[in-house]
Design brief:
Elements (H helix, E strand, L loop, with lengths): L7 H11 L2 H8 L6 H12 L17 E3 L2 E3 L3 E3 L12 H12 L3 E3 L7 H7 L4 E5 L6 H13 L3 E5 L9 H5 L10 H8 L2 H7 L28 H10 L3 E7 L2 H9 L4 E4 L13 H12 L5 E3 L6 H9 L4 E4 L1 H32 L13
Parallel strand pairs: 3-10, 4-5, 5-6, 6-7, 7-8, 8-9, 9-10
Antiparallel strand pairs: 1-2
Length: 367
């Protein structure tokens, strides 16, 4: 029940009990032995915020701004594939939340709801996340389709030249498109609450490819993307161009000089390269390299409102939550999602009071 959610850990715990093993491990899993995911969490836990006292913090403002648009919350929604596995209609729940909070909804290339109804439900607060695949033919068709649908921001994800091996999902035979074999049937039978509510409403599919000319193979190599690919995308896309999956300061400078509009520091939730550095640990160096004016976004490893403040303190100008929102949906449906969002905002607001800040731009690293 939604009322049992008091933190993102609670949402994950309840989701783990309710979801089939295959689905939970697809959402929760990370690359290899998952030491990268542990490193991400340890890096956040090692950071501290500086408490300050006797400051009037009675009026606190969590609003931020992204590409000139004011947001009610200091974080948005990361693009996530196949969200409807966490609960029927999950994509649209996230879109409605984005509309209510006036924050960006990342719409994944492999979303389980098509890009057109999602930007409509989000009332325009949606960014289309793009994977380059194969020779790029289908990729650039999706760019044109996003433009026609009214998207103003494209997020090019660059940290998946090859799909990382995530043993937990591989053990369960997870595939996209979603297929049900004997092993999956048994798994679903042992989780009847999810099965009755989810599968009976239709098997989740990669909705952006349910029409002629838009084929996508999740396992197809994406290794042919290069700086010329970026230049071609920049030339054809008139709106905001964000590059997501950046962990190297030198690459960040090259992206800035190539004319991208924002850089998103991310390790894809530790789902691709197990040995990647914790993004929060490289954020200060990237900020120093690109200068104070380059828009710098952050995701990966965020689990609380305090984590959000740590990212802002180290140079981020906006942050994004991912899988914990799916866990909230699995745990309590749309009510659970809204409850966790309020909790994350409350955590950030309370922490701001503790450190003597009334606005995000007053959050500073520990000296």
């Amino acid at each position: 029940m939604a009322s049992n959610i008091h933190s993102s850990d609670d949402a994950r715990r309840i989701a783990r009990r309710r979801l089939p093993w295959m689905v939970f491990d697809y959402i929760d899993g990370a690359a290899g032995r998952e030491t990268g995911a542990a490193r991400n969490r340890a890096a956040f836990d090692a950071l501290t915020l500086r408490p300050r006292i006797l400051r009037d913090v009675s009026a606190r403002d969590l609003s931020s701004s992204v590409f000139g648009q004011k947001t009610k919350s200091p974080f948005g929604i990361s693009p996530m594939g196949m969200c409807n596995l966490s609960g029927p209609g999950a994509d649209l729940m996230l879109a409605r939340l984005a509309a209510r909070e006036n924050v960006p909804l990342g719409v994944s290339t492999v979303a389980s709801t098509a890009m057109e109804p999602l930007i409509e439900a989000a009332e325009g607060n949606a960014w289309f996340q793009l994977y380059f695949s194969g020779d790029g033919t289908g990729t650039f068709k999706l760019v044109e389709r996003a433009k026609a649908a009214g998207y103003k921001t494209i997020v090019l994800t660059v940290d998946v030249p090859e799909v990382g091996r995530r043993p937990r999902e591989l053990r369960h035979g997870f595939t996209m498109p979603f297929r049900i074999g004997p092993k999956q049937f048994i798994d679903f039978a042992l989780h009847p609450q999810w099965s009755l509510s989810a599968l009976f409403k239709g098997r989740p599919e990669m909705a952006n490819f349910q029409m002629p000319g838009y084929e996508f193979d999740r396992t197809e190599s994406r290794a042919r993307a290069d700086w010329d690919t970026l230049a071609r995308l920049r030339d054809m896309w008139p709106g905001n161009l964000v590059v997501k999956g950046v962990l190297d300061a030198e690459d960040a400078v090259l992206l800035r000089d190539a004319g991208v509009d924002a850089i998103q520091v991310s390790s894809h939730g530790a789902r691709q390269l197990e040995s990647a550095p914790a993004p929060i640990s490289v954020l200060p160096a990237i900020r120093a390299a690109v200068g104070p004016d380059m828009p710098l976004f952050f995701d990966t490893g965020l689990r609380s409102g305090e984590d959000v403040l740590k990212a802002y303190a180290l140079g981020a100008q906006f942050t994004f939550f991912g899988r914990v929102l799916q866990f909230a949906i699995a745990a309590g449906g749309e009510e659970g999602l809204h409850r966790l969002w309020r909790i994350l905002c409350d955590e950030a607001s309370i922490a701001m009071a503790q450190i003597g800040a009334t606005r995000l731009d007053e959050v500073r690293p520990t000296e």
